[in-house]
Amino acid sequence: MDIEFFKKLSNxxxxxxxxxxxxxxxxxxxxxxxxxxxxxxxxxxxxxxxxFREELVKTICNEKNIKKISTPHVSVNVFEIIIKxxxxxxxxxxxxxxxxxxxxxxxxxxxxxEELKNAAQIQLIQNHxxxxxxxxxxxxxxSFENDNFKYLQEFCNDIxxxxxxxxxNSDDYMNLxxxxxxxxxxxxxxxxxxxxxxxxxxxxxIARNPDxxxxxxxxxxxxxxxxxxxxxxxxxxxxxxxxxGEDVMDKLYPYHLILEQNLWKDILSKLAAPNRSxxxxxxxxxxxxxxxxxxxxxxxxxxxxxNITVSNRNNNSTETSxxxxxxxxxxxxxxxxxxxxxxxFKALELFEEILGNSQHSLEDQKSASTWDLSRKCGCENxxxxxxxxxxxxxxxxxxxxxxxxxxxxxxxxxxxxxxxxxxxxxxxxxxxxxxxxxxxxxYSLRxxxxxxxxxxxxxxxxxxxxxxxxxxxxxxxxxxxxxxxRNNFGSEEGKAFANAxxxxxxxxxxxxxxxxxxxxxxxxxxxxxxxxNxxxxxxxxxxxxxxxxxxxxxxxQSVVKSFxxxxxxxNxxxxxxxxxxxxxxxxxxxxxxxxxxxxxxxxxxxxxxxxxxxxxxxxxxxxxxxxxxxxxxxxxxxxxxxxxxxxxxxxxxxxxxxxxxxxxxxxxxxxxxxxxxxxxxxxxxxxxxxxxxxxxxxxIxxxxxxxSxxxxxxxxxxxxxxxxxxxxxxxxxxxxxxxxxxxxxxxxxxxxxxxxxxxxxxxxxxNxxxxxxxxxxxxxxxxxxxxxxxxxxxxxxxxxxxxxxxxxxxxxxxxxxxxxxxNSxxxxxxxxxxxxxxxxxxxxxxxxxxxxxxxxxxxxxxxxxxxxxxxxxxxRNNSTLTFLDIRSNGxxxxxxxxxxxxxx
Length: 904
Hints:
Elements: H1 7-19, E1 25-31, E2 34-40, H2 42-48, H3 50-58, E3 67-71, H4 76-88, H5 98-110, H6 114-127, H7 129-134, H8 136-143, H9 150-162, H10 165-168, H11 178-185, H12 194-207, H13 221-230, H14 246-252, H15 261-272, H16 317-340, H17 344-355, H18 362-369, E4 370-372, H19 379-391, E5 397-399, H20 406-419, E6 425-427, H21 434-447, E7 453-455, H22 462-473, E8 481-483, H23 491-503, E9 509-511, H24 518-529, E10 537-539, H25 554-569, E11 575-577, H26 584-597, E12 603-605, H27 612-625, E13 631-633, H28 640-651, E14 659-661, H29 668-681, E15 687-689, H30 696-707, E16 715-717, H31 724-737, E17 743-745, H32 752-765, E18 771-773, H33 780-791, E19 799-801, H34 808-821, E20 827-829, H35 836-849, E21 855-857, H36 864-877, E22 883-885, E23 901-903
Parallel strand pairs: 1-3, 4-5, 5-6, 6-7, 7-8, 8-9, 9-10, 10-11, 11-12, 12-13, 13-14, 14-15, 15-16, 16-17, 17-18, 18-19, 19-20, 20-21, 21-22, 22-23
Antiparallel strand pairs: 1-2
Helix pairs in contact: 1-4, 2-3, 4-5, 5-6, 8-9, 16-17, 17-18, 19-20, 20-21, 21-22, 22-23, 23-24, 24-25, 25-26, 26-27, 27-28, 28-29, 29-30, 30-31, 31-32, 32-33, 33-34, 34-35, 35-36
């Protein structure tokens, strides 16, 4: 996650890298013809990378006082990503393909970039799992190059556990590294008979010693010792006591001399007398499941035949009702099972049968009509889904987000949409559709008359795809919402969509965020707003609308003036996003003038536009006159003290604004005091974001005083504000009196244990707060214990974020005990707290008793196998949890409950 308040620092450092000014190190990367020399700075390398730190020590300067380092084994493409990470600390993984991310791993590990190495693995597993499976051989080989790619190793082993033939029957098996084989042998769920595993281990060991005769009867004692030495790390993980009967003699006996004498004696003892005790360790049997599931059988005494008619059933109405419920339960389980297995057409038929039953529920209707296949539908399942869309009579909403369907997948879906008559919502976010997929979907929009919502964000549709979709909008009469953000369009495509808006009469929402629309495209869209009478929401954020200003601001102001003029004429648009467009102070003033005349806009997003105090004051003046705007986002605009004071003054007069975002505006304590004073008078504002404004204890004390009297504000964000002990105590005191606030964010404020205690005391008295974010607040075990005590008494809080707080074993234990008593909390985040296996077990015990928690985040907590097992057992007893995050814990949990989503 990019931390926005470091963005300028990061950009400056990357600019330093790109201009090469004052560089004193040359890094020669790659080999001819793919070769490049990077000009870098030793001070950055020394600070950020242990590998280059050592290389610099070993390298002697040339006559120009420049050091040269060579890395011929790293590709130029990969090194460009790494060096930008070293300088700027940011990698945009969403713009890097899976193959390149995989190639990043080895050099990241070599360079000692631990954070990057782990992030790359997690990114691959979470967002490119399908690609990893399709390129499994390469993935597996790289993951076991050394022991530092644990996440990727677990991913590969999980696949092999289910399909061991992938590796054991491959041509590469004999070249498998020892640590890779050992990792497989350790798996409790390796889906193979133990005798077959033994055969494969022996086969691998012999291949490592080509001088050994294939026939062990011809071996000398020295030959057996050779094999024993080769397999010394493999043999301890064989489940010998799961090999029985003749297999012991046929499989083990020919090689028994490689086993320890006592182990072989115990194997024979168990074979002759199964109940006799032995001294050798008996490893648990592996969990083996067939690759083809056996059909489920339902007793006729419980369920009548599925197609039986009511007239043929027992006349007793109660018995008939019970039987119908049993049928429904069976059909539901079958439908969800088929859905999980990717048998979508069969699942559809079962859902249709469920809806044909008079006893079906609203939940059944939702399951049949709304399908979430985000990251769950690869190309191998797509044909099934196409059949569903062509036949479908129930499906109305389909989420196919992050499935990497590609252009061919896009074309197949487009063909189906030409035939489908029921789907109303389709989400294809981040599917790499490309221009060809975009053109195919554009063609389908000319034919389809039912789809009303389409999300094509992050699909690299390009200019051709953009123009095709714009042309389609001129004919389509059904679509009301279209998201095309981040698709690499351009100014010409902006003009094409402007033309579409002049002709289309149904679209109400258009998202063109981050598409390089630029000045001319922006002006065309602004002019289109003067003619269009249906669009209510337009997102043009991050489109370089104000990026060209040459010598004067004429160009920049021209596009802003076009939008200002449009706002004066348009009486339909209610939401406009012009964020991150560098509109400047003058642009802010032009929009402010328009707001004085506009009577329909209710939401305006101007985040990160360099408005300055001048733009802030102009907009503040507009708020004194405008009576329709309800939401205004002015974050990251450097409004300063003067801009803050002007807005505070406006809040004393404005009676319609309900949401105001002023994050990262350098308001300071004085600006906050002015806003606090306004909160005592304002009776409309319900949401206020003042994060990252360095308010300090004085500003917070003033705000706390205002909160004691304000009765309308329900949401307050004070993240990263250096509250100080005095400010935190004042805020806690205000919570004891305030009866309106429901959401409070105090994250990243270093509250410490004492701050935790003060807030805990307040929670014992407050009965309105429902959401509290205290992440990264250095609460420690004492703060955690105080909050745990509060949870035993508080009955209103439903959301609590305590991630990154070093809670300690005592704090975690106290929170687990509190969960046994609390019956209101539904969301709890304990990520990054080093809870360990004992913490996992404590929380597992709590889940067995808690009846309210629906979401639990335990990300990166070192839970271990014991903690994982305890949680798995708890899920069998818990009936309320619907989401569990156990990623980065080195464990996997299986649950038979279809309603719980486990991120792992």
